[in-house]
Amino acid sequence: MKGVILAAGVSSRLRPLTDLVPKCLLELGDRTILGMTLENLIANGIGDIVIVTGYREDQIRSFVRTAFPALDVEFVRNDRFETTNNSYSLWLTERAVGGEGVVLLDSDIVFDRRIIGLLTGAGHENCLAMTRGKTLGDEEIKIQVAPGGEIRRIGKDVPPRDAAGESIGIEMMSGEFLGGLYRILERMITREHNVNQFYEAGFQQAIVEGAVMSAVDVGELQCIEIDTAEDLHAARSVSALLHGVSRP
Fold first, then answer.
1. pLDDT class of 15 with cuts at 50, 70, 90
2. Which of 14, 74, 98, 177 could be joined to 126 by an S-S link, Cβ 3.0–4.6 Å?
3. How far is residue 53's CA from residue 74's CA, in Å, rounded to a whole number?
4. Measured between alpha carbons, how far is residue 125 from residues 37, 173, 242 in Å?
């Protein structure tokens, strides 16, 4: 199984903090967001990594070479990072993934590494991490689930009243599921010229076409997505809480 990290975006909502550094290299104490993500993958036995870069990619490459010199990392460049969304970045990973299963992560999440273990140990071929309890609005990627946990709908357009929770941007997918997803993304991108979708739109279409994906509740395990300066401030508290707590 490979780890795939999407780290191409400009992160304009965090400017000026991201004027000179990509969001994934912002520091939380003595660590970067990307450094914590890589540590979490390694701690779960995933050492074969694909990272999609774009904005300030040289800094990301330099950081990984310096901080993780022995790690097996393949970089994939999204040349259109300024005008595309993460579905396009994911589509670009097909050759690098090579038909294997993956753990897919957005590069702006600070999370307890045990969440990856929840997914890999949940007994599902395809699943994603979900949080409950937060008041949901229009911006969250919301999930509607069947009684057994299978996802019925996923996306920002799911009415909050119908949502079981929010996707946090960590998924596990089999090679078979991912192969179908790549075909869907190719159709969306090359035929429909839709390069600004979130990859969850591909998940939704795969579900419509008969694929099965389940939601796994992370319970009390800490996680936070960083989009704004307020999120970054909160993430520093989460990082401090996790430091040493979730180490094996």
1. confident
2. 177
3. 10
4. 22, 6, 28
Structure-token match 């790690």, residue found: 71
Q: 206-238: per-residue pLDDT in tens?
A: 999 999 999 999 998 999 889 888 888 888 888
For residue 112, the Cα-to-chain-centroid distance in whole angstroms is 14
Provide the CA 147 distance to its chain's centre, in angstroms: 25
38 HSE (CA, 13 A, CB side): 24
Count of positions (residues) in the chain? 248
* Domain residue extents for the chain: 2-242
Burial class of residue 110 in the structure, from the number of CB atoms within 10 Å of its CB (0-12 exposed, 13-18 middle, 19+ buried): buried
What's the token pair of residue 94?
């097909």
Angle between helix 33-43 and helix 229-242 axes, rounded to 10 deg: 40
Pairing of strands 214-217, 102-106: unpaired
Helix (H) or strand (E) run with residue 166 in it: strand 165-173
pLDDT at 246: 43
Can you read off the two tokens belonging to residue 111?
């999370």
**Secondary structure (DSSP) of 193-216:** ------THHHHHHHHHTT---EEE
Distance of CA 100 to the CA centre of its chain: 17
3-state DSSP assignment of residue 134: coil
Q: Name the 3-class secondary structure at 194.
A: coil
Give 242's strand partners: none
